[in-house]
């Protein structure tokens, strides 16, 4: 069950594909509300996996200014009766279908876990993000252990997560900086507490990207099993990286062709790829600074320009993001830079020999895709857990440089000078980062090789699920 968003659906589809390879059949449940741009994406994701769209639910009564997280949680809550009906119909033995082996909601859909319990099947939560993120949720649950409903406790900073990731206040995802004044926090505590209903948590990461955190979790699980810890949390399973393999058909998909063709004409290892995922939008002012920074850097670039954030004002579906670029920018950079509107075939771009570095918002899928291609990053985190990801990439793995934040009041703002300097530093002098990125790429490729660690971990989970099915017969 994948919550709306390419960053959730793509890795879920890859997990489902792997489970099919291990002998299961898989159906991905998607939400009709909020998923419209994914309609075209879905069929190409995993041919071996079935999909079922949940009926749309009424959402127009929510306040117009409801934040995205609240809308998502509300969408999932209102869809629960439909989820129950759909899962029951899939599990209905009278249809001749195989019995349900497990229900796997993603981290935002964990409200559906009681349905697994009702049906007597295992429930596993899927995290499209990393182990550090799971550690953060574990910390929140532990912090509120024994607390009455509505009694919220502040997260102390710096926050030391198991495995040695240390987060300053600014690097803790906004929603996790708990306090009475943060309206999202109550919903978050409710959500992360529900993870405890799971039999396990499948995580889209690999041991080599978070070795100390993986070991810390093993240690915690061992203590729990030995009865040495009063606090119980589901075991975690690092089973990634789930990165969509480049789809040969994508090249034929109209709008994406020009940027791959353009890359074909650039020298090897020369292009700075700039993209902020499916949701990252810069302000008009920041867009202008980025444009000026790329121009001043003198480097070749491929920039996926998304619609500027105008606080929701005045954006129409047919607005062209390229019209927000500074006047004359496209003409001045013609030949050495290409700006494309809204979307590029990212995995293919990152795998292209011309691509040198990735200026990224550090969404976890983008991160794994960059790692999978051996491309170092200029980390420009914008929201959600991206600042934490940037800490892991820069401080723990050494495959990224962070862009220099320029303003106290806006941690994401970077000046033209900051961008130009960081881009040049990385392209011209980032040998150490290149080497580490190459090593990590090898580890990523090994994770799902025949005896790779992530394959082995998912095989163990599959073995348990099959054994449980066998006991039921
Ligand atoms: N993506 C893409 N083309 C784009 C932007 C994004 O194919 O122009 C894909 C990207 O490859 C990744 C996903 O969308 O698989 C974005 O997920 P991520 O976790 O990086 O960021 P989010 O969109 O969730 O912020």
TrEMBL record:
Record InterPro entries: UDP_glucos_trans, UDP_glycos_trans_CS
Looking at the keywords, is Glycosyltransferase present? yes
What's in the keyword line of the UniProt record?
Glycosyltransferase, Transferase
Q: Which domain of life is it from?
A: Eukaryota
Listed PROSITE patterns: UDPGT (PS00375)
Indicate yes or no for the key word Glycosyltransferase: yes
Q: What is its EC number?
A: 2.4.1.-
A GO molecular-function annotation: UDP-glycosyltransferase activity
Q: Which PANTHER family match?
A: GLYCOSYLTRANSFERASE, UDP-GLYCOSYLTRANSFERASE 72B1
Q: Which family does it belong to?
A: Belongs to the UDP-glycosyltransferase family.
Name of the protein? Glycosyltransferase
Q: What is the lineage of its organism?
A: Eukaryota, Viridiplantae, Streptophyta, Embryophyta, Tracheophyta
């Amino acid at each position: 069950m994948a919550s709306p968003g390419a960053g959730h659906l793509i890795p879920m589809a890859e997990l489902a594909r792997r489970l099919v390879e291990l002998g299961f059949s898989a159906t991905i449940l998607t939400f009709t509300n909020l998923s419209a741009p994914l309609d075209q994406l879905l069929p190409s994701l995993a041919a071996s996996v079935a999909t079922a769209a949940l009926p749309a639910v009424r959402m127009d009564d929510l306040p117009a200014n409801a934040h995205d997280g609240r809308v998502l949680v509300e969408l999932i809550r209102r869809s629960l009766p439909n989820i129950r009906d759909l899962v029951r119909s899939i599990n209905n033995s009278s249809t001749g279908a195989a019995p349900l082996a497990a229900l796997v909601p993603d981290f935002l859909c964990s409200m559906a876990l009681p349905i697994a319990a009702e049906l007597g099947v295992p429930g596993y939560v899927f995290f499209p993000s990393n182990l550090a993120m799971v550690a953060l949720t574990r910390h929140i649950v532990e912090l509120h252990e024994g607390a009455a409903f509505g009694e919220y406790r502040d997260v102390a900073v710096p926050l030391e997560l198991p495995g040695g990731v240390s987060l300053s206040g600014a690097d803790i995802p906004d929603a996790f900086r708990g306090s009475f004044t943060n309206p999202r926090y109550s919903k978050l505590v409710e959500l992360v507490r529900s993870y405890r209903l799971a039999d396990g948590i499948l995580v889209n990461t690999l041991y080599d990207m978070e070795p100390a955190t993986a070991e810390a979790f093993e240690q915690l699980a061992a203590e729990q099993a030995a009865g040495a810890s009063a606090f119980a949390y589901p075991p975690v399973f690092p089973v990634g990286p789930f990165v969509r393999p480049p789809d040969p058909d994508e090249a034929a998909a109209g709008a994406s062709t020009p940027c791959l063709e353009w890359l074909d004409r650039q020298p090897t290892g020369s292009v700075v790829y700039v993209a902020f995922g499916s949701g990252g939008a810069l302000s008009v002012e920041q867009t202008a600074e980025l444009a000026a920074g790329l121009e001043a850097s003198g480097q070749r670039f491929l920039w996926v320009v998304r619609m500027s954030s105008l606080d929701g004002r005045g954006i129409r579906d047919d607005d062209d993001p390229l019209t927000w670029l500074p006047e004359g920018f496209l003409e001045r950079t013609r030949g050495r830079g290409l700006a494309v509107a809204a979307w590029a075939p990212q995995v293919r771009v990152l795998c292209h020999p011309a691509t040198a570095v990735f200026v990224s918002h550090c969404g976890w899928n983008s991160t794994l895709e960059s790692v999978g291609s051996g491309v170092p990053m200029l980390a420009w985190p914008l929201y959600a857990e991206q600042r934490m990801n940037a800490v892991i990439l820069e401080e723990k793995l050494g495959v990224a440089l962070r862009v220099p934040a320029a303003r106290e009041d806006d941690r994401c703002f970077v000046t033209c000078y900051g961008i130009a300097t960081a881009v040049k530093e990385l392209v011209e002098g980032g040998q150490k980062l290149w080497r580490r990125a190459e090593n990590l790429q090898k580890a990523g490729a090994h994770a799902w090789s025949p005896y790779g660690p992530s394959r082995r971990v998912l095989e163990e989970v599959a073995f348990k699920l099959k054994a449980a099915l066998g006991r039921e017969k």
